[in-house]
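User: Sequence for Argininosuccinate lyase below. C-alpha cells please.
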Amino acid sequence: MAQLWGGRFTKSTDQMVYDFNASINFDKKLFEQDVRGSRAHVRMLAAVGVITEAERDEILKGLDSIETDVNDGTLKITSEYEDVHSFVEANLIDRIGDAGKKLHTGRSRNDQVALDMKLYTRDQVVSTAKALEHLLTTIVGIMEENIDTIMPGFTHLQKAQPITVAHHMGAYFEMFKRDIVRLSNIKASMWSCPLGSGALAGTTYPLDRYMTADILEFEGPTLNSMDGVSDRDYLIEFLSALSIIQMHLSRFSEEVIIWNSNEYRYVEIDDAYSTGSSIMPQKKNPDIAELVRGKTGRVYGALMSLLTTMKGIPLAYNKDMQEDKELSFDAMKTVQDSIVLFDGMLSTIKFNKENMAKSARNGFTNATDAADYLVNHGVPFRDAHGIIGQVVLYCIDKGIAIDDMSLSELKAISPVFEEDIYDAISMETCVNTRLTVGAPGHNAMEEEISACKEFLSSVPGLFEN
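Assistant: C-alpha cells for Argininosuccinate lyase:
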C-alpha cells in the first residue's frame, strides 16, 4: 500500500479501512491535472530558491516520463496506491530518487486535490460548452431549413396557435444559449488558485503563489487558505448548470418522443438512433431520447449528493469532501454524452411537414386569428371570443375545420364574416402576420436566426478568460 504518510503510525491500516479510504479508483481521472499542478509547483519552488534548478529539471523530467508512460499504457494507475497523488509521487521517487522527495515541499494533499479538482472542472466546463455550441449549430441549421414549415404550437399539450418548426427550435436555442452563458460565468468565477494553501494555514516556505496561479492560468491565488482547501462552490455551481442543461435536453427529448409516436407522426428518427422490440417486429423505439430523459434524475442526484455532503462540514478540509468526485465525474460524462448523442439524433431527424401542417389546420389553431378578424371589423374582443367559440363548437359537431365552413355557415353565426375571412385564417397568414420580435413570422424568424448566428460567433470569446 503506497501512502504519503505513516511515520506517526506503529502498525499498518486495516485492509478494509484502506480500501474504504482510498480514492485511486476514481481520482485517477485527475492524473493530467495532478501532473500539471506538480510542474507549476516545482518550477515555483526553484524560482524562490527552495530547491535547486538542477533538482527542478530532474523532477520535471521525471514527471514527463511518468506522463508519457501512463498515456501510452506502459504504466498503469492501480489500486496499490491510495490516491493519484501518491501514485505520481511514489513513481517519481522510484525514477529519480531523493530529488523526487522534494516535490511535495510546501504543499499538502488538501491544496493539491483542491487544485486538481478545480482544474478538472474548468476543463469540463469548456468541453461541455463546446458540445453545446455544436448542438446549437445543428439547431440553427434546422431553423434555416424550416423557416416556413408550419406546425401547431401547444399549451397544456393541446393545440393552441400555428407556429413553425423554426420557431419551435428557436425556443430550445434560447435555452441552450443560456446554458452556455451560465457555463461562461462559472468559468469566470473560478479565477483563484488554491495551490499554496497548504493543509489549511499556508506554509513557512517563501512560496510565490502568484507565480503558480499565473502558470496554471488563474488570475491569482485564493485569498484565504482555509477557504482555499475547503471550497467546492464552483463544483456545486457546475453541477447545477449541468442539471439545467440535462433538464433542457429532457424536455426536448420528451417532445421528440411525442412527435415520433404513431398518433403524431411529426418526425421520423433515423435508424442509427433507434432500436426495435424483441417480440414486436413493427416497433421503432426512440431509445436515445428516452435515455436522455431518464438520465436527468441521475444528474440531479449528483447535485443533491454534493449539497448534502457539504452542508454540515466545518472548516477546513474533511474526508467527507472526497465524496465530491465519483458522482460529479459521472454527471459530467453523462451530460456530455447526452448532448453529443442528442445532437446526432436531432441532426438526422426527418420532419413530416405535411403531417405537421395538417395537424395545425385540424386543431383550430387559427381560432385566435378568426377572433382577431372580427375585432378588426369592429366587434369587441370579448364578443368576438364568444362568436369564435360558437364556430368551434359547430366545427366539432360537423367534424370539420374552420376553413371548411362555407361563408353562409359563418354568417349564420355572425353577419360580420365576409369572403376575406378565408385568407385571414389561412395557416400562412396566421404565422406570417406575427412579426413582433420573437414571433414565428417569416421576417421575424429571419432576424432571430441572424441573432442566433451572431451569438454562435461570440461563443469562443466567452471562454477566453
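The first strand starts at residue 150 and ends at 155.
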